[in-house]
Design goal:
The complex is a heterodimer of chains A (300) and B (316).
Chain A lengths: L1 H31 L6 H21 L8 H24 L9 H23 L8 H5 L2 E4 L2 E4 H23 L1 H11 L1 H6 L4 H23 L9 H16 L4 H21 L7 H12 L14
Antiparallel strand pairs in A: 1-2
Helix pairs in contact in A: 1-6, 1-9, 1-10, 1-11, 2-3, 2-4, 2-9, 2-10, 3-9, 6-7, 10-11, 10-12, 11-12
Chain B lengths: L1 H4 L1 H18 L2 H25 L8 H17 L5 H23 L4 H21 L9 E2 L12 H28 L1 H11 L1 H6 L4 H27 L1 E2 L6 H14 L4 H21 L4 H15 L4 H14 L1
Antiparallel strand pairs in B: 1-2
The chains are: A mainly alpha (300), B mainly alpha (316).
């Protein structure tokens, strides 16, 4: 029984983290129809930017009010999004929209390679540590178990960002415009929707979500080169399990994978590295388009 | 028809030319070419699938299987004969392909790509955790022998080079024959319109499974050769970035010309080695820029350059 509780709580925490790093990917795919292999690099850049921002915050006398470091994290992620989002979308991806799907994937692979080195050039190769925000909130006691309260902050942020994206898409006028673009790009253009701008904004939001994922993770790990390479494939698995382009799907997929991984960590540690891909392969065998596929929105 | 009849002649000329060039190459360049050709074989497999409109982002699976078959057989049974190891690699990757092929044949587009990728990542995770197989460090592979002949130093490099060239020419010839065969032409039709192919009475499923198994076998051979050439295998061969490079070579070359695949692979290896040498800290950056430039400037790959010249020759 205790083990089950362990698995559920761990799974929930890991699932929340997974959701944050993958929701941006599914949003970008849903709107722009691009599978962004550079998502993991954007996540890593977010982590680096946060490390710098939080470091700068404390260097400038933030010790008097350490809670402000959370604000510094968000600002770091925002900066990444505002700089890189328009740069990548306007400067590069835009030229490939009419090309084959796989070509675009390969373009983002090129971006991934470039960003990996750019990060090394900017932040060097020595690991950075920003553990202050991690320990700020203290610990939480759950029955016999102790958890770092920060983990629950991750869950809160995951729920908030998921709800925000869902609310925007389904309950606001602008969000409905985005849904119209997802449904039929050309038709919405003829109806007067500025599709270029929708693409730009959605891609930037996607970048922000990736960077936010990195920002939240930065205090928990040592920020070093190569942290994005793994994340991208994990995020892919989550998004594919849920059905590409579906926010609800990403949430369910993240929970699924989170609990599966927690179970494997506790029960079968050898399988931890590939349990995610196993879950994905099994789901795809039974539901070829993922759990919440929106295939009807695409035309043949 | 004349193209089919002259194919053996072209292959023979190509082989002789490769050997002559090889004799003039310094050792490092010979190794680089051997590796480029081994990886080119894997990319050729992706090209087979690309003709049917599918892209596998997990050919690292077969590359890795081939490499590990070579490594494990050499370590466990002491088999070092390269012909036997290649045959074993073909059997292992062929069987794996036949198991996964029918499963994958129902998927298209990005789902096919992701499912192949996940298979290869499962193997990566498995090998990384298996300490009996060397874990993430991988294992060393003994130098190969050639039907009892056990060369060393430059002779070994040259023998491997000649062997690789022979395999490349044979594989290239076979794949060309396949492309021009009825079956190979159906693949192109699948790319255009799958539904019509079914209505015309051909089985899309069978065709895709066939192409997938062929791609897997080519990947396995590439893995065996590269494992033996490096003398070391590790799980990284099944990692997604390795597969990404194969896809890159396939896209860079396009599906119009087979020699272009090996030229493309060679080009990538050269760019990588030189950027490794001159920009040791930013070689990925140079590789990425190279990739973007190729995609922008050569929409249909290197093969389109060759095909374009051929067309011009025919019209004039």
């Amino acid at each position: 029984m205790e083990l089950l509780a362990f698995i559920l709580v761990d799974g929930l925490i890991y699932g929340a983290w997974l959701f944050i790093v993958s929701v941006g990917l599914t949003l970008v795919f849903g709107v722009l129809n691009i599978l962004n292999l550079a998502h993991g690099s954007l996540y890593a850049i977010g982590a680096y930017a946060t490390a710098s921002a939080v470091g700068a915050y404390f260097a400038l006398g933030g010790d008097a009010f350490p809670m402000g470091s959370y604000l510094a994290m968000v600002i770091g992620a925002l900066l990444v999004a505002v700089v890189l989002g328009p740069l990548l979308e306007r400067g590069l991806l835009r030229h490939f929209y009419d090309r084959d799907h796989v070509i675009v994937v390969l373009v983002t692979y090129g971006v991934f390679l470039i960003l990996e080195d750019v990060m090394k050039l900017i932040w060097g190769v020595t690991p950075l540590f920003v553990s202050e925000p991690y320990s700020l909130l203290g610990n939480v006691e759950l029955g016999p178990l102790f958890y770092v309260a920060y983990d629950f902050l991750v869950i809160a942020v995951a729920i908030m960002s998921g709800l925000a994206v869902w609310f925007f898409l389904n309950r606001t006028r602008r969000g409905k415009v985005v849904l119209a673009v997802i449904h039929d790009r050309e038709m919405s253009q003829t109806m007067g929707v500025n599709v270029d701008r929708v693409f730009l904004v959605c891609f930037t939001v996607g970048v922000f979500l990736a960077a936010l994922g990195g920002a939240l993770t930065a205090p928990m790990i040592s920020v070093s080169p190569g942290i994005g390479v793994n994340v991208i494939i994990i995020a892919f698995a989550v998004v594919i399990i849920g059905g590409l382009g579906s926010i609800e799907g990403a949430a369910i997929g993240a929970l699924f994978v989170g609990i599966a991984r927690a179970a494997s960590v506790h029960l079968l540690p050898e399988a931890e590295l590939f349990i995610i891909y196993l879950v994905m392969a099994v789901v795809l065998v039974f539901r070829p388009e993922g759990l919440f596929s929106k295939t009807e929105a695409r035309k043949i | 028809m004349s193209a089919t009849r002259s194919l053996p002649v072209i292959c023979a000329i190509g082989f002789v030319a490769l050997i002559v060039v090889g004799l003039l190459l310094p050792e490092w360049a010979m190794f680089l070419t051997t590796m480029a050709f081994a990886k080119g074989l894997v990319a050729l497999g992706i090209v087979c699938l690309m003709r049917a409109g599918l892209v596998s982002f997990g050919q690292g699976l077969y590359f890795c299987i081939g490499a590990y078959v070579a490594g494990l057989m050499a370590n466990w049974t002491g088999i070092t004969d390269i012909f036997l190891l290649t045959a074993l690699g073909i059997i292992a990757s062929g069987i794996t392909g036949m198991i996964f092929g029918p499963l994958l044949a129902t998927y298209r587009g990005i789902f096919f790509a992701m499912l192949t990728l996940s298979l290869s990542m499962i193997l990566y995770g498995f090998l990384s955790k298996m300490t009996a197989l060397g874990g993430t460090d991988g294992l060393n592979v003994a130098a190969p022998t050639f039907l009892g002949y056990a060369p060393e130093g430059r002779a070994l490099g040259l023998s491997l080079y000649v062997y690789t060239c022979a395999i490349v020419v044979i594989a290239g010839g076979l794949v060309r024959t396949f492309f021009d065969s009825e079956r190979g032409l159906i693949a192109l039709a699948i790319r255009d319109n799958e539904l019509r192919v079914e209505y015309l009475g051909a089985s899309v499923r069978k065709e895709i499974v066939f192409s997938y198994v062929a791609a897997g076998i080519l990947g396995g051979i590439g893995g065996v050769i590269s494992g033996l050439a490096i003398g070391h295998v590790d799980p990284e061969t099944a990692y997604w970035t390795t597969s990404g490079e194969f896809v890159f070579v396939a896209i860079l070359s396009g599906y119009l010309s087979i020699p272009a695949v090996f030229v493309g692979s060679l080009l990538l290896e050269v760019v990588r080695s030189f950027s490794n040498l001159y920009f040791p800290n930013t070689w990925q950056l140079s590789l990425g820029i190279f990739l973007l430039a190729v995609i922008l400037l050569l929409p249909n790959g290197l093969g389109s350059l060759l095909a374009w010249r051929k067309r011009r020759r025919e019209t004039s």
